[in-house]
Specification:
This protein is an alpha+beta fold. The chain has one domain. The chain is 27% helix and 30% strand. The protein has two helices and three strands; from the N terminus they run ββααβ. The radius of gyration is 15 Å and the shape is elongated.
Length: 86
């Protein structure tokens, strides 16, 4: 089974970070989440610094909300058992 991780990437050069935001079983739901997070990020750039909170990325560092943050999806396999050596 495949799952779809929504990730957030922020920072530049040596201070960059990648955060796992959430996972979905449905790729369309993951894409919708990414779209909503991007829209919310754009809306937040127009508000006061003290009002910045992206409900689609609640753990985003405050400096990334005013700066550079990108959202994407990573598809991975969801396993029930450890991969055996063969």
């Amino acid at each position: 089974m495949k799952i779809f991780l929504v990730i957030g990437e922020s920072g530049e050069y040596g201070d960059d970070s990648l955060r796992l935001i959430c996972a979905y079983k449905n790729e369309d739901k993951a894409k919708e989440h990414v779209t909503l997070a991007r829209i919310e990020k754009c809306n937040l750039k127009r508000t006061s610094l003290f009002e910045k909170y992206n409900k689609y990325d609640p753990d985003a560092p405050i400096n990334s909300l005013v700066g550079n943050i990108e959202y994407d999806i990573v598809e991975i396999d969801l396993l029930d058992e450890l991969i055996s050596e063969s």
